[in-house]
Amino acid sequence: MSSTPVAVVTGSNKGIGFAIVRALCKQFQGDVFLTARDPGKGQAAVAKLQEEGLHPFFHQLDIDDLQSIRALRDFLKEKYGGVNVLVNNAGIAFKVLDTSPFAVQAEVTLKTNFFGTRNVCTELLPLVKPYGKVVNVSSSVSISALASCSKELQQKFRSDTVTEEELVKLMTKFVEDTKKNTHEKEGWPNTAYGVSKIGVTVLSRIQARMINEKRKGDHILLNACCPGWVRTDMAGPRALKSPDEGAETPVYLALLPADANGPHGQFVSDKTVRTW
Ligand code: NAP
Asked: Which GO terms describe its cellular component (predicted)?
């Protein structure tokens, strides 16, 4: 088993994830894994970074596929005995002009952004080593979407006692409500992406609490963040930040020094803790 520290970035064949891998290759003292659901795209991305003189490793990972997540888990366990840095970056967003029914957009978006990210966490968080860092890439849209929720939902999502099971039930209910076209009456905002990212931010708050309860003394720091508005296939060419600039906050959280006590369980953008 290798004692080399290891970092893993989900959805890193392009966009912000790719830029996070690039930055980690330069700044993280250890092996960096670029992962992609499509091995061809993943290997091509690795080759691109090799041309820059960087040396990421590759592992396949489709966060929608439990078998794929478990294969990565087993690999990390066997080869490294765990993981030091996990960046949950993979995500999707329907284009504004997409004509798919809202219920379809809700189901598909929640499947990857919330349920897929949660499955990765369920399988990999137990492997995170002492002093490890976990970064869940959410979005500032989670804050604006929260403000558009009913008072009752806002209270649940801001609660310091909400459980992961309750959160999963709420995310499932959103998808069900969109199918019945009752989501607005039930207090949900009209954004599937926004609700999926509320899920990621609240999940991060819950996971940080669980780490405090179950792994006190392990000094693990886990946060949600927004990379900003970044020029990628998701956000388009008019966005303000380059992918490398978008990677800055996730990388800052991934490389917090060993003696840092925080941030932990926070929502961070531009390296600053924001009020949830
Ligand atoms: P992007 O360029 O579309 O890249 C998304 C990445 O996620 C791609 O590598 C994609 O792989 C991967 N992915 C999607 N579904 C996956 C799955 N099931 N399993 C594994 N990988 C999967 O988007 P981006 O702008 O870099 O976004 C990265 C993250 O930042 C997302 O979580 C996004 O919500 C968040 N974010 C972005 C912005 C922005 O302005 N760009 C703002 C706030 C938050 P494929 O190439 O195979 O599709």
From this structure: cytoplasm
